Structures are given as C-alpha cells and as structure tokens.
C-alpha cells in the first residue's frame, strides 16, 4: 500500500560530491546537484510509491523544502533521510541551540511526501523565496 | 611550465602537504596526489563563478564599484554599528585572522568562527574534561586500533585514512591496504551474488543467502593481528564499507553507547540486552578490542557534536578515553572540517584568551557560549551589522538565523560567489589562500603548516589580510573624524 506521508529522522552532513561541488563554486551546477538532493532508503521510497530522482517535500516544524529523492546505495536505512549540508537542508533544520550555539543539524524529526509536480528551486530562487534577496 | 612540490592543500583539516602542482602561464593545470576535493579546488579556483570586482547593493541589485568605495562603505557600516558580528575565518590564514581580532576589538563586535556550528561543543567539553590527544604522526606510526565515531572520513577528509591511519605504512604498524583489497573484492562478489539472486539465475540458493542482512557481530577480522578499523555511525557510510567492524547506532543515542562501553571496560555487567539497537555482546567485543590494543585512537566528528546531547556526547567520549588510559594507551581527536578552523581557534585564543564566540562589546573580551555565540545572537535578533569572511553562513545556518543576518547590513569577503555573497550588501572578492597567497594554517592535531603561493592573483584582487587591514584603517579614520566633530 502506498502511503501519503512518512515520518522520518532527518540527518544532514557531508558527501564527497558536496565537497567537490563547493570547491568548484557555490553557484555551480555540480554544487546544486550535490546539495539539492536527499538520500532515502529504498524501502521507504517504495512505501511512498516514488522512484529515484522524484521530487519530494520534506517538512519539519521549521519549514519545508522540495528536494530530489535518491536511493541510498550502501545499505538499508529505514526511517532515516540524509540531505547534504547546503541552503536546501538549512531551510528545514532545527534552530534549537541547547544554549551552546550549536543548532541540531542531525536527528531532527521530519515528514516526507512525494511532490513530483512541485519544482526544485535553484539557489537564487530559493534565496529569493526564503529571504527575499 | 613548472612543477611545484610539497604544496599544502587548503581544503580540509588534514592539510595534506604532499601535493604536486603543475603550473603553466600562471595557472594550475595538473594536480598530483590530491583527493577529489583537492583537485576540484586547485583546478576550480579560476572558474567562471568567481567575482573580479567589489560589489555594492543598489536598488536590491549588486553592482560593481571601485575598491576604495567598497572599503569605505564597509568601514562605515562597521564603525556605525552598535553590536556587529564578525564571523567565518575557517578558510583563511592565521595572518588574516589576527587582523580580524584587531578589527573586531576596534568596532566592539563579536568575533566568532565556524567552529560554532562544527566542533564548538567539543571545545566546551575539552574546557571541562581536558583532552588526551597526540599528533597525527604518532597515530600513523603507532596506532593499532582506529575508531571513527560519527564521522565519514572517506567523504569529508578523503585522505585521512591513507595518510594518517589505517592505510599508511607506519614505523611500528603496517598498512592494512591488503585487508582493504580483500574487503572490496568480498563486497563486489556479494553484489554479484545478490544480482544473480534477483535475476533468478541461481535456482536453489543456499539458505544463508536468502536471509535479509541484519547487524552482525564483530567479524573474524576483529581478532586479526595489526591495525583494526572500527566505524560507529547512524548509517552505513562509505568509510563503513571498508571497516573491520561497523557498528550502527540509532540516531541521537551515541551517549548511551559510550556510557555502556565505559561500564564494560570497567568490567561492570549491563542488565539490558541492547543499547541503542546494538546487542550488548557485540559491545563487549568492542570493549575487549579497545582494552587489548597497544595504542588506540578515537576520532570523532559532527555525528556527536550535532546530535542530541551535543557537548555532553564529547564529555563522555573524552571520559571513555580517560578510562581506557587506565588499561592501555588511548587518544582522542576531533575531525576538524575546514583547513584552518583549528587556526581560527588558536589565533582567537592567543589574542583574546577565548577560542570562539568572543564578545568585545564591553571593551574587553568576554566569552559565554549560548549568549555570545553568533547563532544565538542572530536567533535573538540582536546584531545590527555583520562581516562574513571565508565562510558561507547563508548555506550553513538554520533559516531563522539567516533571516536576521540578511536583514541587517552584510559585508562579505570571499573568493567565490556563494549564497551569503549573493545576499550581501558589500561583497569583496579575495585571493585564494593557499593558492594565490601564502600563510599559516593549523592541521587538526594543532600542527602549524605553511601554505604556499603558487600563482599570482588576478589583477586588482587583494588578499583577506589586505582587505581587513584597509577596512581597519578606514574604520579608525572614520572614528577619529567622528571624535573631532564631536
């Protein structure tokens, strides 16, 4: 049975592609492709009825963002999604700093739903829509 | 065409200093020995995304202006601000950081570096518990048990394993390169078997192949002689694939696992079957391996500092290492991200007494993480201007913090156009530290290394240090004019 929404734990972090992209240039195509995506468990993707490279809407209590779902190639990670560090991840990251200045970039509860019709914003479009600049 | 040897790579905290560059017509054309990110940096620095002229925002658009005009505008913003923040520093040289401290003191602002969203919690714990550490050279030659906890060196510090730990030929410990080849072969044949099963080529597969993969106990390689590699993470990373043993922890539960290990190495029995999803008997084997080793090292990453518990996770990691030192020799080290984030802490400490989140607003340095950290200042909407250098907070801070950052005047100094620069009010293009300008940087183990200048910067582009010095001079001029006028 296909589910409409899935509750997951959101992790953010580095990937080698993000590293290569950021050094190539933050406005480069490589960086955009490396950070506007989200690794998902193959089983979870099946539950939502989505395929590789389908757009998904990830929401937390801080906001929501459209990213591209990619099957995590290494192992099963049910209930965990992983978005590389970048503007897309930070739209939805928790800003609770536990009074030490460090927001919770890992382990945030989130919801995922398929959004094949919603567009994946470019960096400029994302900054414009989030911050008006 | 010339070949330059022993160049220090200005990318991550590894600071590999064996890079060989071929330079032709003032351009790097070939990179040898570097990882993918290193190559991307040395070949990508001249990319089309680079800005060549200072920019100022006019009618909500960034327009090119002269350097003098941009310097004056930036100095005006900072001199007139009440509570400005000066943030970044992890991708520039110690020399530029030193000027930054002077500038922040002059304008009575808050000096913070990227460790606030990286290993800031680690620093807090080190200040509470202390840190039994060493240099990477010692690890290379002596460590026979290497643990990476909450970090993925293969992705974030690609040559760490090859230069300093498991796959390096030390004087007393040999490289485990052959073991790696075996693991790669095994993993490839596993994939082949799986694919054959999926396609139905094997008619009567043996039963053990049909079982779904679950977390298994420590493999026989854990008992082998020589170097052992254990990876602890919440998901199977690239590094986990080549580990002797990979332990998968449930998200936000590292604290429990470490406390359990502390109990086990003190020979206490645990009255539960599983800790954070890991059966206790597996943890016992890990505790055994820790106690049995001659010299162990625990590297930890943002998996600990960013998840629940934050600096308490580091407290317990350091305590675990302290406990282990009663039975054997063990050290611990944070995997610092950017190439000179350690330097940012070092410079801030020797100049002001504090490693980050230094508040000069009262005229003397004050340090109170949670209050004087840039993140909290932005979330409380207290700052009224910002200078961001050699970092990209708009891409790395939570949205609420960025909202306030861009609402107030924002000065950006960076070689590349990035998310912060796109939203800045005054943007300075700078020379690439470690490519177009030399300097000093601190490796993750606090060893300072020289960065080389290999090519000339484009005409008219100044270094971070020069831009900051000129802003500082201009700020002093504006302030003295104000004094005279009053």
Polypeptide structure, described:
The complex is a heterodimer of chains A (133) and B (486). Chain A is α/β, with parallel strands linked by helices. Chain A has a single domain, classed as Barwin-like endoglucanases. Helices cover 29% and strands 31% of the residues of chain A. Chain A is built from five helices and six strands; from the N terminus they run E-H-H-E-H-E-E-E-H-E-H. A six-stranded mixed sheet of chain A has the order 2-4-3-6-1-5. In chain A, helix 1 runs antiparallel to helix 2 (29-35). Chain A is globular, with a radius of gyration of 14 Å. The model of chain A has no long low-confidence stretch (mean pLDDT 93). Chain B folds into two domains: 48-118 and 339-485, Rossmann fold (3-Layer(aba) Sandwich), CATH 3.40.50.740; 120-199 and 213-334, Dimethylsulfoxide Reductase, domain 2. Helix content of chain B is 40%, strand content 18%. In chain B, strand 20 (439-442) and strand 21 form a beta hairpin. Chain B is globular, with a radius of gyration of 25 Å. The interface between A and B is large, with 50 and 67 residues.
Descriptive terms for the model:
heterodimer, A: 133 residues, alpha/beta, Barwin-like endoglucanases, 6-stranded mixed sheet, 5 helices, 6 strands, 29% helix, B: 486 residues, Rossmann fold, Dimethylsulfoxide Reductase, domain 2, 9-stranded mixed sheet, 5-stranded parallel sheet, 40% helix, 18% strand
N-end to C-end Cα span of chain A? 42 Å
- pLDDT < 50 stretches of chain B: none
Number of domains of chain B: 2
Largest interface chains and counts: A-B, 50 and 67 residues
- CATH fold title of the largest domain in chain B: Rossmann fold
Order of helices and strands of chain A: EHHEHEEEHEH
Q: What structural class do you assign from the helix and strand content of chain A?
A: alpha/beta
Helix proportion of chain B: 25-40%
Shape of chain A: globular
CATH architecture of the largest domain in chain B: 3-Layer(aba) Sandwich
């Amino acid at each position: 049975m296909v589910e409409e929404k899935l509750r997951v734990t959101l992790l953010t972090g580095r990937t080698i592609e993000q590293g290569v992209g950021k050094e190539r240039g933050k406005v480069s195509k490589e960086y955009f492709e490396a950070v506007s995506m989200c690794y998902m468990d193959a089983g979870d993707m099946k539950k939502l009825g989505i395929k590789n490279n389908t757009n998904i809407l990830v929401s937390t209590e801080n906001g929501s963002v459209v990213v591209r779902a990619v099957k995590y190639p290494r192992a099963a990670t049910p209930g965990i999604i992983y978005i590389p560090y970048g503007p897309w991840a930070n739209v939805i990251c928790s800003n609770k700093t536990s009074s030490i200045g460090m927001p919770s970039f890992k382990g945030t509860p989130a919801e995922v739903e398929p959004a094949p019709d919603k567009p994946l914003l470019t960096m400029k479009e994302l900054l414009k829509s989030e911050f008006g600049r | 065409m010339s070949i330059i040897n022993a160049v220090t790579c200005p990318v991550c905290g590894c600071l590999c200093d064996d890079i060989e560059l071929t330079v032709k017509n003032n351009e790097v054309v070939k990179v040898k020995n570097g990882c993918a990110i290193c190559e991307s940096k040395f070949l990508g620095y001249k990319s089309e995304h680079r800005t060549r002229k200072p920019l100022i925002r006019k009618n909500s658009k960034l327009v090119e202006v002269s350097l003098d005009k941009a310097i004056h505008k930036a100095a005006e913003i900072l001199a007139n601000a009440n509570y400005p923040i000066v943030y970044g520093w992890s991708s520039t040289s110690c020399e530029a950081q030193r000027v930054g401290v002077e500038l922040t003191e002059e304008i009575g602002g808050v000096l913070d570096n990227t460790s606030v969203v990286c290993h800031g919690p680690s620093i807090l714990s080190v200040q509470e518990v202390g840190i039994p550490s060493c240099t990477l050279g010692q690890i290379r030659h002596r460590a026979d048990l290497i643990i990476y906890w909450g970090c993925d060196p293969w992705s974030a510090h690609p040559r760490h394993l090859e230069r300093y730990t498991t796959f390096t030929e030390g004087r007393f410990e040999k490289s485990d390169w052959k073991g790696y080849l075996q693991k790669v072969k095994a993993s490839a044949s596993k994939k082949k078997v799986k694919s054959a099963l999926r396609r139905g080529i094997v008619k009567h597969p043996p039963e053990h192949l049909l079982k779904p993969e679950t977390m298994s106990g420590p493999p026989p390689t854990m008992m082998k002689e020589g170097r052992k590699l254990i990876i602890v993470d919440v998901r199977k990373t690239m590094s986990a694939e080549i580990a002797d043993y990979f332990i998968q922890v449930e998200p936000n539960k590292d604290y429990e696992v470490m406390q359990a290990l502390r109990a086990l190495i003190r020979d206490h029995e645990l009255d539960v079957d599983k800790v954070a999803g890991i059966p206790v008997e597996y943890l016992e084997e890990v505790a055994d391996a820790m106690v049995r080793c001659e010299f162990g090292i625990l590297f930890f990453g943002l998996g600990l500092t960013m998840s629940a518990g934050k600096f308490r996770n580091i407290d317990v990691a350091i305590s675990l290492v302290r406990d282990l030192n009663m039975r054997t020799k063990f050290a611990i080290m944070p995997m610092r991200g950017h190439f000179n984030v350690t330097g940012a802490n070092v410079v801030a400490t020797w100049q002001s007494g504090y490693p980050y989140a230094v508040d000069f607003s009262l005229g003397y340095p004050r340090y109170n993480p949670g209050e004087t950290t840039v993140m909290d200042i932005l979330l409380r909407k207290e700052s009224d201007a910002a200078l961001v250098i050699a970092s990209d907070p708009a891409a790395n801070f939570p949205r609420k913090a960025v909202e306030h950052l861009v609402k107030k005047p924002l000065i950006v100094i960076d070689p590349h156009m990035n998310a912060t620069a796109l939203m800045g009010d005054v943007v300075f293009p700078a020379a690439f530290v470690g490519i177009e300008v030399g300097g000093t940087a601190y490796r993750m183990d606090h060893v300072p290394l020289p960065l080389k200048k290999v090519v000339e910067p484009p005409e008219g582009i100044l270094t971070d240090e020069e831009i900051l010095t000129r802003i500082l001079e201009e700020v002093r001029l504006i302030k003295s004019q104000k004094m005279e006028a009053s």
